[in-house]
Amino acid sequence: MSDAAQILAPPPAEIHEGGCPRCREEEITELFRGADRLYETTRRTFAVVECVNCGMMRLDPPPLPEELADFYPETYWWQADESAAGRLAELYRQFVLADHVRFAMGAVEGEGPVLDIGCGGGSFLNALGQKGVGGAGADTSRQAAQVCWSQYGIPAVNASLPFLPFRPGAFQTVTMFHVLEHLPDPMMTLEAIWDLLPPGGRLVLQVPNAACWQVLLLGERWSGFDVPRHLINFREEDLVDLLSACGFEVERRKHFSLRDNPAGLATSLAPSLEPVSRKVRKVPESRMTELAKNLLYLGLVAAATPFTLLEAAGHAGSTIMVDAVRKSDG
């Protein structure tokens, strides 16, 4: 099994038993069957189901742990290259990343330290460092952790949730963007993060919002389902309830992400244009074709922005980001 699967395959004895991750109800209703529209790693279809009690959506049955690694390409995380298209994409990513940094800075007290789980190549931690906030990263990709070290000099470990090699209370803030939906047992994950924080420590967490307007309009074509990698599809109330059950109190919420909401809608409408997906699928294209497709995708992202701002204003944006405080007692 590759490193990418470790975060998704904790020992069975450690997993909270039961059906629904939110309420443990076992009875479900199948909503649809979906395939890997984005990376085309498999031709299989998977059932997306809804809990009959609380309505939380998930894959059922989930993929086997030994299968999961095959659904995560080696280049699943982003790393820019030196081509004109790569430089353009990196400039855009740095611009939209500032939106995440502003929200996270509202949770950082003093100078940190911050742990970014799912750190990728370290661009977010580097942006925090430019504001005087130190930290470390963790990622299941050994290559990503190495890039974080080599490119930015930021310590990063190749490790998996919930078994991270840090002492309890080691961090003042933990950030985790688009990770929780990939995990089979979110409650166990949040309990592990609770241990990494002191009382009053903060967790900044972002997931796709399965109660967004895009789901109503696009149904199973919504990119936030990302079958088969997203094992759980959270609505805002699902996330808040789980955080509360694991000893956190949500203080701030944000329904718009400049990095994720417009791009998510663009990807839903034209998954074949998504830049990382094209690299993963090794689509043959010249440098000029690559640049033209990236510009076309960027234009689609720009066109999607007004709608995504509108749905976020209605508290139904396609992502939900929260700032939650660790309570004294879990």
Short description:
This protein has 330 residues and is of the alpha/beta class. The protein is built from eleven helices and eleven strands.
Describe the protein's topology:
Elements: H1 3-6, E1 28-34, E2 46-51, E3 57-59, H2 65-68, H3 84-105, E4 114-117, H4 123-129, E5 135-139, H5 142-152, E6 156-158, E7 173-177, H6 186-196, E8 202-208, H7 213-218, E9 232-233, H8 236-245, E10 248-254, H9 261-269, H10 275-280, H11 287-313, E11 319-326
Parallel strand pairs: 4-5, 4-7, 5-6, 7-8
Antiparallel strand pairs: 1-2, 2-3, 3-9, 8-11, 10-11
Helix pairs in contact: 3-4, 3-11, 9-11
Tell me about this structure.
The protein has 330 residues and is an alpha/beta fold. The protein has a domain at 84-264 and 308-326: Vaccinia Virus protein VP39 (Rossmann fold, 3-Layer(aba) Sandwich), CATH 3.40.50.150. It has helices spanning 3-6, 65-68, 84-105, 123-129, 142-152, 186-196, 213-218, 236-245, 261-269, 275-280, 287-313, and strands spanning 28-34, 46-51, 57-59, 114-117, 135-139, 156-158, 173-177, 202-208, 232-233, 248-254, 319-326. Helix 3 packs across helix 4 (123-129), helix 3 (84-105) packs parallel to helix 11 and helix 9 (261-269) packs across helix 11. The chain is globular and about 50 Å long.
One letter per element, helices H and strands E, the order comes to: HEEEHHEHEHEEHEHEHEHHHE
Q: Which regions have little confidence, pLDDT < 50, spanning 5+ residues? A: 1-16
Which percent range fits the helix content? 25-40%
C-alpha end-to-end distance: 33 Å
Tell me how many strands there are: 11
Largest sheet composition: 7 strands, mixed
| Backbone shape | globular
